[in-house]
Amino acid sequence: MPAGGQSARPVLACGEVRTCLLPSFHALDGRAAAQLLRLRADEHVRVSERPNLYALSPDVLTGVDCRLPTSNGAKVRAVGTVAARAALTEGRVLQATAYFSAPSAGPDTRRPWGHYLVRPGLVEPFGKLPEQATAEGVLRGGARGELDLGMIVEGLLAQLLRHPLLDHKAPFKSRRTHLRWVARRAPEGEGPSLQRFTLAEHGLRTVELRLPEDVPAAAAAGLCEDLALHDWLLTTVVHMLDSSRLGAADGPSAVLALRPAVDHLLHLWMPRAHVDRTLGHLWDVLEREPGFTRQWQTLVQRIRDQLAVQAIPLLHEALSTR
After folding, report:
1. What average pLDDT does range 170-180 have in this prediction?
2. Superkingdom, according to UniProt (predicted)?
3. Sign of the dihedral through C-alpha 199, 200, 202, 204
C-alpha cells in the first residue's frame, strides 16, 4: 500500500462520452432541462444561459469491483467508484459521460466500501497500476469481465431517454457518436497538451491528453464533452449535406433536407464555451489540424449558398407576378 496508508495522487484519468440528438420535437428550455437532468435529489442541476443554454447534471457514482482493461492482457483488479453525468446543450443535444481516475498504486487488499465512497470517481488497483497498458485498454474498450465505461454511459442514457418529458419525435434523423479519452500525468513543469485525436470506425473517436496533476478528472471530462459535442455537430451536418444530394436533387428537396441544420444546429457552434480555463487552449490543436472550425465554416457557407441559389427563382417569380 502507498506510504502513510493514503492513496497516491492519480496518474491516469479515463472516460467515455456519448452524444446524441435529444428525442424531442421541441428543444427543452432551462427549467425542463434541469428537470430532465436531475439525477440526484440532494444536488441541483447547473444551468447557464450565456453564451448558450447549457445544463449539467450532478455526478452519480457507480461502484465497481472488476478487472481494468489492459492492452497487454495483464489482469489488474480494481475497486472504487466511477462518476457519471449528463449535459444538455441548447435543449437539443444530449451527452452522457462516465469517467474515473486511478493512482499509480493501491492497497494490496480490498477495503470497506466506506473507504471508496469518500473518494468519488477514484478507482484503486490492487498493487501497481500498469499505466500505459490500462490507457491503451480503455481506448480499445473493456472486454467481458473488465471495467466497461460504455455500459455505464449507456445505462445513464437509457434512464434519461425514458423521461416523460420526451415525446420521441426528433425533428430529424441523426447518429450517435462516442468518444473515449485518457489523460496521463504530464512531466513535472509541463502544461496540458492534447497528444492525439483519432477518428475510428462506427462513430468512435479517441483522445489522448497529458495533464498536470492539479487538473482534476472532471475538467478533463468537460474538455472531452466539448470536443465530442462539436465533433457530433460536424458529423451530423456532413451527413445532412451528403443526404441532400446537392446538385442532383431538385431545389425544394435540397432545401427541405438542409432546413433542420439551419433551424436546430448552426447556432450551436461555440468551442470552449464551457471548458475549464486551464484547458481551453487545447482546442488550438484541433483548429490547426484537422481544422474543426475551418471545416464548420465551409459547411455553413455551402448550406447558405445552396439556400441562396434556391431562393433566386422564387424571387424572380415573385417579381414577375407584380
Report:
1. 95
2. Bacteria
3. negative
* Closest alpha carbon to 88 in 57, 112, 66, 60: 57
Q: How far apart are CA 275 and CA 6, in angstroms?
A: 31
What span, in angstroms and rounded, lies between the C-alpha atoms of 248 and 51?
38
Tell me the sheet residues that pair with 38: none
Average pLDDT (81-100) is 98
Structural contact between residues 153 and 160, judged by C-beta atoms closer than 8 angstroms: no
Cβ-contact 203, 179 below 8 angstroms = no
72's CB contacts (< 8 A; 6+ apart) are 130, 133
DSSP letter, residue 105: B
Whether 174 and 20 have beta carbons less than 8 Å apart is answered as yes
pLDDT band at 6 (very low <50, low <70, confident <90, very high): very low
Q: How far is it, in rounded angstroms, from Cα 38 to Cα 58? A: 8
**CB-CB contact of 163 with 94 (8 Å):** no
Q: Which residues contact 296 (CB under 8 A, 6 or more apart)?
A: 230, 233, 234, 237, 269
